[in-house]
Amino acid sequence: MAYRNRTEYWMYATGGFIDLPAHASIFLAVNSRPELETPPDQKTSALKLALEPIQDALVSVETRIRAQARAFDPGVESYVAYAIESNGKRLRPALALLAGGATGHTLPDHENLAVIVELIHAATLVHDDILDEADQRRAQPTANARWGNSLAVLLGDCLFAHSLRLAATFDDNRMCRRIAEAASEVCSGEIVQTQRRFDLKLSVPDYYKILEMKTGALFAVATELGALLNGASMEVMDGLRTFGLRLGTAYQIYDDCLDLAGDEAHAGKTLGTDLRRGKLTLPVLHLLQISSPEERERLSQMILEGREDEIRALVQHALDTGAVRFAVNAGRRMLREAQDALEVLHHSVYRDSLAALCSSLDAMIAPLAR
Questions:
Q1: Is 20 within the bounds of a domain?
Q2: Which structural domain range is residue 341 located in?
Q3: Three-state SS at 64
Q4: Does residue 30 fall inside a structural domain?
Q5: Are 355 and 28 in contact (CB under 8 A)?
Q6: How far is CA 186 from the centre of its chain?
């Protein structure tokens, strides 16, 4: 599917229900410090506004992402098209483009980078769904549900390989090397997380490391390389890498909290799904930490046995004891650290947009601390 104009793209990206307010009023709302609070009725408007400076580039990137299917054998094309046409809001491409704007100019190579990071993300989703035995993602059947695990594994592999082939076209060898390193880190993070399912000895530092690898790494490479393409200084590249890493990690903490404290219709899955699959997230790890030895033993048995009534009771217990609130506060603290990392940049609308992404995510995670 191609987009005839940027209005049509935004109808796709935001669901068609957002009115774009004036720049000044919303940027004042979303960039408040240090609380980072955004009124609930401005959440989606603030998110759209954060991407306003790169609207045209995002339309181009979206068209190019969907065109990638044609690079494959006709027998494979339809599978690839299915995998890349249902991947949400394209946040990682947006980060690459905003980092480019914040460090000089958004060049054609920034669009190339945006396409590559999204293809890697699409590959990870295909493989994630196999590991989780998921049959739906965003209200659509997963690749493994439609065609089986064997074909889905190969589909994810194709997407990884194609993204690295595109990365090899950059003139600067550092681009391809860093993209390959990030892809390897994402896959390694998934391996470690899979190894440590139902591992009650998992520590909070271990948890953070997994998040940085499986989610933060791709956010970080998008922002870091967006700066590298403009010849930015090492200080600026490091700052943007830190920004991406913190934002990506906070985003995963939000997703983990949503699994326990969200609305099932909004979350798109049954609450406690991560627990049922043995994924011990920050709220659960904190709950185990603050419990007495006897209570910890009881909760551990509930996790290992996975009985439906006990999982639901454990979810409620995480809410009642403030364990979810603890994780929400950790995520919000990480968002403040992400904004602090932007101090290396000169003031610009693109820097404001990067900061506004933090504010938008903060507005999403804050209500979960009920």
A1: no
A2: 8-14+37-368
A3: helix
A4: no
A5: no
A6: 12
Whether residue 122 contacts residue 143, with contact meaning beta carbons closer than 8 Å, is answered with no
Domain count, the chain: 1
Q: Is 278:198 a contact under the CB 8 Å cutoff?
A: yes
Radius of gyration of the CA atoms of the chain, in A = 20
What CATH number did the domain enclosing 321 receive?
Answer: 1.10.600.10
Is residue 2 one of the residues assigned to a domain? Answer: no
Enumerate residues 6+ apart whose C-beta is below 8 A from 222.
Answer: 92, 93, 95, 96, 99, 113, 114, 117, 244
pLDDT in tens, 7-39: 444 444 443 322 333 333 333 333 434 344 444
DSSP 104: S
How many angstroms separate the CA atoms of 368 and 361, rounded? 12
Angle subtended by helix axes 323-341 and 349-365, to nearest 10: 180
Q: How far apart are CA 241 and CA 238, in angstroms?
A: 5
Q: CA 258, CA 252: separation in Å to the nearest integer?
A: 10
Residue 278, sorted as left (phi over 0), alpha (psi -120 to 50) or beta, turns out to be: left
Query: What is the tens place of the pLDDT at every residue in 144-192?
Result: 999 999 999 999 999 999 999 999 999 999 999 999 999 999 999 999 9
* Model pLDDT, residue 5: 46
**H/E element, 291:** none
pLDDT reported for residue 159: 96
Burial of 206 per CB tally in 10 Å (0-12, 13-18, 19+): middle
- Residues (pLDDT < 70) of the chain are 1-46, 86-87, 264-269
Residue with tokens 């074909």: 151
Can you give the pLDDT at residue 17? 28
Which pTM was predicted? Answer: 0.87
**Token pair of 229, please?**
């393409």
Residue 92 belongs to some domain of the structure: yes
- What is the rounded average pLDDT for all residues in the chain? 87
**Cα–Cα nearest to 47, from 332, 356, 283:** 356
Three-state DSSP string of 224-270: HHHHHCCCCCHHHHHHHHHHHHHHHHHHHHHHHHHHHHCCHHHHCCC
Beta bridge partner(s), residue 136: 141
